[in-house]
Design a protein that fits this description.
By secondary structure, the protein is of the alpha+beta class. It has one helix and five strands. The chain has one domain (5-72): SH3 type barrels, CATH 2.30.30.140. It has one helix spanning 60-72, and strands at residues 5-12, 19-24, 27-32, 46-50, 53-58. The longest helix is centred in the last third of the chain and has 13 residues, at 60-72.
């Protein structure tokens, strides 16, 4: 089982197209977006992140539910 953390895309990388700046609970991180090359991802979208890679695009409600769960279990 892997633990995926939701994050909101802030900016798509212009100088490094495979990277995006993603906000993860107030911390901005460079996230590799190559696994989502078949999807349109833009600032404001939410992604599920594992080990610095965006694994899937998720909706805001799913992201909020995952964040609430992670808060409840103490991560």
């Amino acid at each position: 089982m892997c633990l995926g953390i939701p994050g909101e895309v802030i900016q798509m990388g212009s100088d490094q197209p495979g990277l995006a700046t993603v906000d993860v609970q107030g911390a901005q991180r460079a996230i590799n977006m190559d696994l989502l090359s078949d999807e349109q991802v833009a600032p404001g979208d939410w992604v599920l992140i594992h080990l610095g890679f965006a694994l899937s695009k998720i909706d805001k409600e799913e992201a909020e539910a995952a964040l609430a769960f992670l808060t409840d279990v103490g991560t």
